[in-house]
Amino acid sequence: xxxxxxxxxxxxxxxxxxxxxxxxxxxxxxxxxxxxxxxxxxxxxxxxxxxxxxxxxxxxxxxxxxxxxxxxxxxxxxxxxxxxxxxxxxxxxxxxxxxxxxxxxxxxxxxxxxxxxxxxxxxxxxxxxxxxxxxxxxxxxxxxxxxxxxxxxxxxxxxxxxxxxxxxxxxxxxxxxxxxxxxxxxxxxxxxxxxxxxxxxxxxxxxxxxxxxxxxxxxxxxxxxxxxxxxxxxxxxxxxxxxxxxxxxxxxxxxxxxxxxxxxxxxxxxxxxxxxxxxxxxxxxxxxxxxxxxxxxxxxxxxxxxxxxxxxxxxxxxxxxxxxxxxxxxxxxxxxxxxxxxxxx
Length: 345
Known about the structure:
With 345 residues, the chain is an alpha/beta fold. It has helices at residues 42-47, 93-96, 127-130, 143-148, 152-163, 178-189, 202-211, 221-231, 247-256, 278-282, 295-307, 326-334, and strands at residues 2-8, 11-16, 28-37, 55-56, 61-68, 80-83, 86-87, 107-108, 121-124, 132-134, 170-174, 194-198, 215-217, 237-242, 257-265, 287-290, 319-321, 341-343. It has 2 domains: 2-151 and 294-343, Quinone Oxidoreductase, Chain A, domain 1 (Alpha-Beta Complex); 156-290, NAD(P)-binding Rossmann-like Domain (Rossmann fold, 3-Layer(aba) Sandwich), CATH 3.40.50.
């Protein structure tokens, strides 16, 4: 089969590898129907050292069960499934607390002998706990939105949930990538009536407005902070959803959060330290929260709206590529000519 490997910064290749097989009795093999490139995939695209053996890529996929281990009890060959970006047993105390990203027996794709989702098929460990079965006969038009449940829709939802968004709160979303835009969608679903989206790419912020943003601030840094403060009577917003992961975005969040407010971070931090002292968090009673979204916890909660078409998170995909063009898909996301790239085997 074909699979995507990265051999160093900017070096993405699609190569032939053996088909996955059942290794443990709790495994399943899923034939991938759709996968995609994530904004977080651009971090190794920029920084991965030379890796002679290559690194498998991809952590978002949907597909059809092709084989199951003897201990798999909830899935059958032919089931259509969604795979969250972390695999988990579904039974440990953390999973029972809806924190599958901390599963005592789970892990993440592309690590510890578990390959990635930018491939024609994937071995899924702990399949009963990990995979979510979707009703048969789903229209192909829904596939992009179903795929967002693997990561970006759940991550945007997680940001809003951890931030405590409600009808009584004002919200700033920092970042106009797929996660930021779906954080806007989630904030609207939680009832926020004032949502400021900080982003500078008009095609993306236009989609953000469609998802529920009431204001768009294109300025960055001090100018952006001043603009948000101006829009909010000098106070800033109750909640800031930071969906970028770079230090300037965190500093921007500090600048626009209201006293007593919450910063919810879901952009994977690309820095080791953040300002958390008296003048930033302690003095104004600001709460810092967020983290890797337990997407598995949210799939069944968000799935009905996707299936009935009342929400369309798949609109974040603006380019579709086949396997031969996956390297070009990475390049397009890196140079911002694509928001999010869908991969169709």
